[in-house]
Structure formats: C-alpha cells, structure tokens
Amino acid sequence: MKIIPKKHLFHFSCLLVFCRLLLAEAALAQNTTATATIPVNVGVVLDMDMWVGKLGLTCINMALQDFYSYHSNYTTRLVLNIRDSKGDVVGAAAAGLDLIKNKQVQAIIGTENSAQANFVIDLGNKAQVPIISFSATSPSLTSIRSPYFFRATQNASSQVKAISAVIDAFGWREVVLIYVDNEFGEGVIPYLTDALEEVNTRVPYRSVISQKATDEEIEEELNKLMTMQTRVFIVHMTPELGSHVFDKANERGMMGEGYVWIITTGMTNVWSLVNRLDMDSMQGVLGVRTYIPKSKALDSFQLRWKRKFLQDNPSYVNADLDIFGLWAYDATFALAMAVEKLGTTNFNFDVSNANARTDLESFGVSQNGPKLIQLLSSTRFRGLSGEFGFINGQLDSSVFQIINVNGNGERGVGFWTPKYGVVKKLDFRNVTGYSTSKSNLGTIIWPGDSQVDPKGLGIPMYRKRLKIAVPPKNGFREFVSVPAGTIPNSTVTPTGYCIDVFNAVMKAMPYKVSYDFYAFEKPDCEMAGDYNDLIDQVFYGNYDAVVGDVSIVANRSSYVDFTLPFTESGVVMVVPIRTDLNKNAWVFLKPLTLDLWVTSGCFFVFIGFVIWVLEHRVNENFRGPLLYHIGTSYWFSFATITFSQRERLVSNLARFVVVIWCFVVLILVQSYTASLASLLTVQQLQPTVTDVNELLRKKENVGYHDGSFVQGIIQRLGFDLSKMKNFNSTDDLNELFTKGSANNGIAAAFDEIPYMKLFLAKYGNYTIVKSISKIDGFGFVFPKGSPLVADVSTAVLTVIEGDRMMQIEEAWSIKQTNCSDSRTSVSSRSLGLGSFWGLFLMVGVAAILALIIFVSEFLYEHKDVLRNTEISVWDRILEMLKIFDDRDPNAHTFKETEIREGGHYDGVRIRGAKVPVEEPAEVPAEVPVEAAAEAPAEAPDDINGTASPETEIHHANTNNS
C-alpha cells in the first residue's frame, strides 16, 4: 500500500474545507431566495365531484409545480385557495365571494360551466379580479363583455363553421339539431343555424332533450325523428346524455345505412368520458374535435399526469387526459407569468367599501387588477395545447380535426382550418383558397358499415306511404282521370298521362317510395276544387304531394316546392286555319309588309336621283329636257328589278352605287318570289288571326281553360270578361270555334301547350300562332323544403331522356314537339323591314358617300367661281348651277365624241384619222365654192402616217382661235 505524502494530505484537507464552504454558501443563498419569495393568493372554484373538476385541479397543481421548477429564481409564488362549488350556481357565487372578500385573491381559476361563470364574473368585475375559465364554452358569456373575464377554452361557436363545411361537402340540404335543454346546449344553436343557412341547409326541426330525460322521453323524441324525411342529425350534448341517446337510437334502428350522425366538441373533446361499450352504438358517427398538435412535452406530461391523477383518484382507472386539462395547465402557466411580470410587492385590496350594508358591497377592490388583465392579454407562449394567447379575452379559433368513430375508438379523416376549409393534411404548400370538397376527406365508414355517402333523406319509417292528391277533372281526362263515382278524399287508382309519368319517375328513384293516390274535391263546389285550393292542402300538411296537370307559376312556388317540369312550357294562342285567304286579286302585295313596300319605293327614287347627279355632266344619256332627265333616271333605277337597264354608265362613282344597289334588288326580288310562291301554294297554313291586337281591335271573343290561371293572363292582355268564354275539354273548344265569335263562340283560344297539342292532335284545322307567356309547364308538388324534390327532379330528367317518356306520349297522343314547327305554328308570312334594314343601310351609305365625293370634287374644280367676290353669293350659286347643268369639257366621254367627229384631240390630229384638208388660198375663180367643198382633197400623209406640218399648223391655229 502506497503512503500518501503529508503535503498532499494537507492539500486534500484544504480542498474539502473549500467545498464545504461553497455548499454552505449555496445553501444560504437558496435559503435567502426561499425567504424572499412573495406569496400571491389565487382562487380555484371547481366542482370536485365532476370529471372536469378533478381533471382541472390535478393539471393546475402540476402546472405550478412545473412552472416554478423551470423558474426557481422568480420572486412570486401562486398560492391556491381551493373552493368546491358543489355543482351549484349559488355555491360557485358563494365560493367566489368568500375568496375575494376573505382571501383577497388576485385571480380566480375555474367555474366549470357557463351558468356558474355568469355570477362569478360579476363579482370579479366589481372587485377588478380576473376570472379565468378553462371549461365554460357557452357563447352567451361573450355577450357579457367584461374586461376581467378570460376564456382559456374555445368558444363553442367556433366549431360551427367546421360542421357546416362538412355538411356542405356532402351536399345535405336538411339537418335536424339534437341538443341538451340547458345553457350549454342552447347557447351554440343560433350560431350553428346561421352557419348552416350560409351553405343553403335548413333546419326543419330542433330536438331538445333534458339532461335528466328518462328512457321513455328519449324514445318518444326519437320516434318523432323517425317520422321525418331528414336523415342528418347534429348532436350537441354532454357525453353522458349523448351516449344514452345513441344507445336508444341504435335500438330503434336509427344507426343503420342511410343515416348521418355528427357530434360536436361537447362529446369529442371529452372522449374519455364515453364508455367504451357505448362505442358499439356510435359506429359510423362523424365528429369535430379541437386539434392538439403532438409534441414531446405533451407525451411526457401525459405519463406524469396519469400517475398523479390515479394517485388522487384511484377510481378513474380508464381516465385519459383531454383538452380541458391542457387548457387548465396552460391557463395556470399564463397567470403565473403575468403575476411575475407585475413586479410589485403590493397585493392588497382597497377596502374603502368595507362598511357597506351587504356582503356584495363590502369586499374591496384589487389594486393590481387593471395591470394584471393587460399582462394576461399580452401573454403568448407555446403550451401543451398548442399556441396559447388571449385575443379579446378568448382563445383564438384553431384547427379542428374531423373524426370518424370506428371500432373501439376514432380515426381522423381530415381537418378544418378557418383559412383553407376542409383539408386532408395540415400541409398547405399546395393548397389555394377555401375548400369544402369531400375529396379532401379520407375514407369514411358510415352507419351500417357502409362506404356509400348517404343522401341525407329517406322515407319516414312510421308513415311509409305518401299521401298524394290528384285533381278530378271534367275535361282533358287524358292528363288525369279519376273513376266515376269516387268518394272525395278517398284512395283511388287514377289514370292519365301525368299519372303514368309520375309512376315512371318513382321507379327511377334511387330508393323505394310507397304512396297512395287520393281524390281531392273542394267541399260545397259543383266542380273539382280549384288547383290553388289543392296546393293549399299540401302547404297545410294534409297531403304529401300533388300529382296532375299542375302548372308551375311564381305565386304557387312561394309556399310549395315544384319538381322540374315534365312537359313543354308556355301559354299559346290557337286560331282556326283559313283556306281561302289568298284567293283575291291583291295577293301579290302580301309577300311584303307596308313599311317594306314604302322603304323600297323610296330607295328606288333615291337611287335614281343619285345616278342622275353622278352622270348628268358626263353622260349624254342623262341630258336633255327636264322630263327626259326624270324619265331616264327613274327608268334606269326601276329597270334594275329585271336587270334590263340599257343606259351605259360613265362615272365610276355611279357604277359603284349601282353594283351595291343591284345586289340589294337581287335579294329583294328573290325573297319576294319565294314568299309569294309560299302564299300561293301553302294555303292551308294561313291562320285567320295572327296578332292579339287584331282580336282586341275587332272585339272578338276568346276562350280559356276553365279554372286555369290563364284567365288572369288574358285579362292582363286587355280582354273584357264579357268577351271571354271558358271550355273544359277539346270537344267544348272545337264547338266554340265552330260557332265563331259572331254566334257567341270564339275567334281564338289561349291555353298551355300540353292542352293545345292534345287539341291539335284531335282536330287538324287549327294552328298555334303566338306564344303569350313563358311558364315552366307541369310539375309535381311537394311541401316547401321537402328533401324529395331534388331526387324526384333528377328522376324526371332520367325519364324524359329515356324511351319510357316517348312510350307514354304515344299512348296518350301527346307528342313533345317544338311549337315553332310549321305543322303546328304559323305566324305572318309577310316579309318586314326588320329583315332587310341592313341592306338598305349599306346601299344608303354607299350612295351618300358617292354624292359627298362628287360634290367635293365639283366644288374644288370650280373654286375660282366660289372665291369670286365681285359678284353676290346668289349669283355665284346660279353660276355653279349653270356649270353643273353644262357638259363637263374635261370628261373623256365628250373628248371621244370629238375625236370620232373630227379626228382631233386638243388640236392634234390623231394618227390614222381621215381629216379633210382645207383648200389652198389660190382657188381658181372659175371653180364654185360649193364644188370645192363637195370634192375635198385628202392631205397626204408622211411615211410614218402622221399629218403634214402644214396641216398640223393649220389645225393648231384654228383651235387657238
């Protein structure tokens, strides 16, 4: 064994002494720090018998332990003063009063529900003590607007946008709300209803269930839901009541295929309270839940919380940490940070009101309250629940996760964010804009273990057969016919076109619909009830639908819903056909209307005048006496009809105008010929009347379908009631036409297209001449907001596009034809100005342009006359008119005439021209002058064929003279 030297032992002893001194100094410093901390009283008001109270207290204690472990150098220490509210509003108020008055707490954490929070907030506002709640979610607390209230939990209304986005993604248009009958349940319903209306989804019914409802009461309410067509339910309840409702719904078969159940954060945020056995009754349920981002700190805290909570509450073996515990933890952290930032040792109350007569007035006012709420509002940090901070006293809306209950738990199928809407993952690199597309959700297992998206509606289970009313008819039984002797308001087996179409539509529905037909008849009435009265019965709920020849009009659509029409739309006018219309001497005038005749005549005159102006100075054909001028000009214009004009045009401007005019005349002539041929050969298609104004002017009688809204349309057109005759069948209508207007019959009839097509199919000597009004045809009637309307409308389109519709039409002789077909519709055969105004505009512009160019050139050529100031303006005008009336000396046409007559052009002999040679000066006296003139001698040409110099000089002198 080696012996240590003494000097080394000395050094080692000194080191031990030094270490002991350091440890003593550290202990002294720690002791000094511990004694220097300032205790700050904080109140805690919770219901210690409830889950949230037990959960919150554990998390609050752990938050303080962790906070001061991380910040051991802080000078303040929160001291908890815990009070049990006993789950009672009065108990919570008493606890808050005791804490403020006796303990002078600087803040209060807790108040489990919104009802308790209302009372405690009032105390805190008077004492200037911040109230921090991590579990009161009711939106009603927002309306209090107390600056001393901080909601360290999400407002329940923040989830409504996420729920409405899911509804909109699947296109459900009706939703039933099921909620608990207390402030927790009722607070969010107005916000949820508004959010659903924004996506065009209505709430036809609200199911309210008491928190203490018995099994019988719950079953009775579920029975009401089963009698409705809506199959989408949103449940906003506590976990205990919600689990009970789902259990009863499952017993009654309401958790099967076709149903949709959506639960709010009231259940999903405290999922640990839902019994795992109850999960079997909730298979396929959708829900929205506050999203908690994963972190290592959260994982570590969950393990520590589990051990701590089980130590304090051994009976909660299966308890799991939820979002309310995390909010309690983060809220305590925020309060501890704010108190530390106060930087003061004065935590006393102003007790100037201590001698007040009542306890509610005797407590003091915190001196640090105003500054503390400012520090709480500005506190921001990343806590266990995510980003934590107050905005206007509330947590900011965060991400919601969309979950689907499946098996023994739930699985996430997507997310909703305020900015991007429904998304599959929280990865926004490729996301643009707000979306509510269901393609952004994962696979959902719906109730009944189905992966097919439910339609959201179905046939009521306790009213399996629809009660459908049909109108008995005295005429037009091809559309609806009820057996004779049928008792009103009893079941019938009707026939007819509309009935066959409805049966075909029901077969095309995506699900089975059972129904019975009932004959409707208005009491105390000779005939079948008015259609408006029949529709009223659907509005009042006496019938589920109306099937028949019911027209879709605006005033009816205000209180019932119609499906898409299954017939053609519109009200038309029908008149007899006149076969001897064209057997008269003036039929040749019919092809063109009066305005077109007048316009054409005016343009013939105008074009003749334009041609005369352009040709007068340069063309001998357009010169001479006045009557010759007029005759030639208008002869030329009118001769273009047959293209037989013989006059040769000289001016290029005139040629330009005539080319365009001939094009217009060609189109007019061809159109006239075609129209006249049609009038002479198609006599059977000519109506007796083509215009409503003609009927009004002649005061003719007209007919309308009895009991139809068409009567009102005819009155608005201007017909007097005394001139209106009703009919009930095709035979009645034909009889009225046969009598004629003069014999108490009619000259025209107004009705909807389906009726008129049936009439024309039976009687062929009538035709449709005019469409009077645009309506949507016949449709099936359902109550306002009925979810069946969309599916029935889709089935109507399916039937119309298929062969079945053609078979039904052929069976009842109702052909779907276009009313513009020449066999069923006739309008005026005369051609109007509206078809040719473009042509007249074109030729008019060309003529005016040619005149402008001609006048401009003429004025420019004789500008010297216009500038001559020695004579008056009137004389200058007369001089210009005189010049215009004379030949144009520079026109090449007159020069050619001169050449032809004299062989000269500007005094120069034209090569090859035969020009007479003047006699020499020495003419023998014995030769008479007449003889010399009769025998002119030809001037010898030179070798190149040009005139001799002597001859050229002679002509030049003559021209100059």
UniProtKB/TrEMBL annotation:
Functional description taken from the UniProt entry: Glutamate-gated receptor that probably acts as non-selective cation channel. Glutamate-gated receptor that probably acts as a non-selective cation channel. May be involved in light-signal transduction and calcium homeostasis via the regulation of calcium influx into cells.
Alphabetical list of SUPFAM superfamilies matching this protein: Periplasmic binding protein-like I, Periplasmic binding protein-like II
Subunit and interaction comment: May form heteromers.
Annotated ranges, domain Ionotropic glutamate receptor C-terminal: 465-815
Signal peptide residue numbers: 1-29
Stretch list, region Disordered: 919-961
Pfam families documented for this protein: ANF_receptor, Lig_chan, Lig_chan-Glu_bd
Family, as annotated: Belongs to the glutamate-gated ion channel (TC 1.A.10.1) family.
Localization, UniProt: Membrane
Membrane topology note: Multi-pass membrane protein
Annotated GO MF terms: ligand-gated monoatomic ion channel activity
UniProt key word Ion transport: yes
GO cellular component, one term: membrane
Low complexity: bias regions: 922-938
Protein name (Swiss-Prot/TrEMBL): Glutamate receptor
InterPro entries in UniProt: ANF_lig-bd_rcpt (IPR001828), GABAb_receptor_plant_PBP1 (IPR044440), Glu/Gly-bd (IPR019594), Ionotropic_Glu_rcpt (IPR015683), Iontro_rcpt_C (IPR001320), Iontropic_Glu_rcpt_pln (IPR017103), Peripla_BP_I (IPR028082)
Keyword annotations: Glycoprotein, Ion channel, Ion transport, Ligand-gated ion channel, Membrane, Receptor, Signal, Transmembrane, Transmembrane helix, Transport
Lineage: Eukaryota, Viridiplantae, Streptophyta, Embryophyta, Tracheophyta
